[in-house]
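User: I'm curious whether this sequence folds into something compact or stays loose and floppy. Could you predict its structure so I can see for myself?
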Amino acid sequence: MQVSGTADETTAETPQGDLTVRTIAMPADTNANGDIFGGWVLSQMDQAGGIAGVERARGRVVTVALDGMTFLRPVSVGDVLCVYTRVSHVGRTSMKIEVEAWARRFRTQHREKVTRATFTFVAIDDEGRPRAIAT
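Assistant: Here's the prediction. I'll summarize afterward.
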């Protein structure tokens, strides 16, 4: 997991959107360095975005894209990963959902932004074809 950024970038703000997923980082989720695997964080973010997408589209959605991600801080075993979502745009069949991942640190309860991304989801019907999203 590549980490960049300064403390000001991750602690001066507050989470944006609705708390959608909250889970604890466990030893099985670590990479070879002992940090939580970036793919695990991405997976939690995709699940949260999917939950928000299903609620907004009132039915099945699939992930079709996400913008680039930069990991600002690592996640450690015992941290609680809190994922926040906000629907930022709804088109005819697709929507963009802003997703932020924050870590609540195990021992200190301090909260830090880990990463963010914009996910694009498409609403689909039972046959897997795009369908209109109700307004």
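Summary: The beta strands are 18-24, 61-66, 80-90, 94-104, 111-123. The longest strand covers residues 111-123.
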